[in-house]
Amino acid sequence: MSDTKMIIPNVRLILGQPCRAIELSSEQEEPFIEPHRHQYWEIVWCKEDTGSQSIDFIEYENRANRLFTIAPGQVHLSEYMGQNVRLLVFAPGFVETNKRSTQLVESVFSTHAVRPPYIDCSDEGLYYLDSIFTMLKEECERDIDDCDWGLVESLINCFLRYMLRYAKTSKLKGGQRDARVGQLIELIDKHYHEEKKCEFYASELALTSKRLNEIVKAERGKTVTQLIHDRIILEANRDLIFSTKTVKTIAIELGFEDPAYFSRFYRKQMGESPAEFRLRCVDSATL
Question: pTM value?
Fold first, then answer.
């Protein structure tokens, strides 16, 4: 294996360009190393067993032909890779034009599933993905006015479906085992600022708190309260890195009337203060 490495560049979409398919090599310019918050769907297709990806502050090892799936709002740090990487980036709403395609995107990007944010495909599946990616790349490289974006949308749908069909982990094909867990995650995303008690979510799902905790514990290995706390910490970490808000402002926006209580809560969850986390991440980005 070559020792040549590269850093994944920050991809931007412009008006009228809802998708990009990019093949990168070690000669690619304009690299970046600092974490960035996504505003689009992105698939990072690794071609070598080199480096790692950090997604929402959790690090995952790169593997040859592992496809990382990063959703809008997630924090992504691309570490050094091998010589060849493929990126597929598309804007929210470009593919999700009906219920079926929306469910497809949610399945691939693990928005409510119990699995890491990547898919390992079989060799048979890679044969199809290679062909579809080549067609996507060729079409996306045409002038914006000449590109057939309807064709691009169809090709992305095909690409995502083949990812699921040939995923090595059979659990992916089955999807969410209990739809109520997915519904709970959606409710937490919507209400975690103001609702931090299990009782609210149990009531919304017409369940008792005990029953909801049983369901969540069986599938996620956590209680409802732990899921709420995880969501609060995730958003706090995103703000600490991607904004200049004070810890007091972050605490208030997250529904904590007492910033000191928020700092104690944060330290209990993370093992360090919000200020220490912010400083550590800034230091890491400048190494």
Answer: 0.79
